[in-house]
Amino acid sequence: MILHRSTVSQPSSKRRLRWAIALGACLLMAACSGPATVGPPEVDVPTPLPEGIDFDPDVEAGEEDEDCEPTASYAPGSVTAEQARATLGDAEHVAVGISQSTNLMGYRDPVGGDLAGFDIDIAKAIVGHLMGDETKVTWVPMTSGEREEEVNAGTVDMVVRTMTMTCERWEDVEFSSEYYHGGQRLLVPVDSGIAGLADLTAEHRVCTGASSTSPKNIAALSEAQPVTVPDFNDCLVLLQQGTVDAITTDDCILAGMAIQDPTLEVVGEAFSEEPYAVAFAKGNTDLARYVNGVLETMRADGTWQDLYDTWLAEHLGSATAPAPVYQD
Ligand code: GLU
To answer: Which atom of ligand 1 is nearest to the CA of 163?
Structure first.
């Protein structure tokens, strides 16, 4: 029995000894490799980039052509709501092209998920007059590059999406009168040392929206390298990642981005004129005239001012409605 106990207990104590040595070694290793030397493994993860990004876009530098008076629309006349409704693709709903990711202008409210913003409220007011019910609307999110094509294809009846009236665009669409007067500016990190256009060099990458007025404007006035994305909203992440040095687009859009990231600031003076209007299919002047009548009412009854003060005044300063210009 003693022998038996001895034969059994001997290997057991050897095992304990081995365990003790192993444990000591582990503790020693752990002590030597403290938190300072433990870190994530170094792997080369490529920075995620938005689809359609172009680091060397073919931008034709130059001011917008001045072959027309871009803000001149059609005088509101005798077009009735009934006549205007007859131009709609679906008699029950107005299909409106919008952005759903442009803070302040057209975006999804994180609380509740409803669409909100200055453009959205302008569109709701128009739909309210036209249909007698502002909920009779079908919202169609789209990028800047899709606006002209979709409204002419009849996918939407109108576009209310930060859209500048230009002579070039007048060739393809009809515009309402101007409902917001913007200008192009720069958004940069607060410690960037860039205080305006004059500080940009050929070394700087400036992100902006493809198919928008912005690349042409920046290329005309700066040596900086434009980087374009289909939706200018994707520029925000690219600036936060450090992939680009600045964003350039309209003041109201940049103000919406700056709210989302306090490490960024809008700098410099506006260096373009961006008169915003509602766009319609080429030839649909009845709807344009009717909407111009609604915009007249909104200027006169204080609706425009209420909407501006609600969405933009705090970020862009006080303003009054742009005066309408008519070509006939
Ligand atoms: N307002 C400019 C434009 O219509 C820039 C913003 C945008 O692309 O929507 O091109």
So the answer is: 4
Residues with CB under 6 A from ligand 1: 144, 161-164, 209, 212-214, 232, 249-250, 274
Which backbone phi and psi does 149 adopt, to 5 degrees? Answer: -65, -45
Confidence at residue 47, expressed as pLDDT on a 0 to 100 scale? 80
Question: Angle 103-106-110 (CA atoms, 0-180°, nearest 5)?
Answer: 60
- Does 236 share its domain with 171? no
Phi, psi of 36 (to 5 degrees): -60, -30
Give the ligand 1 atom nearest the CA of 212. Answer: 10
Domain-embedded: residue 8: no
Is there a domain that residue 34 lies in? no
Calculate mean pLDDT across residues 286-311.
98
Atom of ligand 1 nearest to the CA of 232: 8
Quick one: average pLDDT of 227-240? 97
Residue of minimum CA distance from atom 5 in ligand 1: 212
For residue 237, which phi and psi values (nearest 5 degrees)? -65, -40
Give me the phi and psi of 120, to 5 degrees please: -65, -40
Residue 116: which CATH number? 3.40.190.10
Contact between 214 and 249 (Cβ < 8 Å):
yes
User: For a pLDDT cut of 90, what percent of the chain falls above it?
Assistant: 82
Say which amino acid occupies 96: V
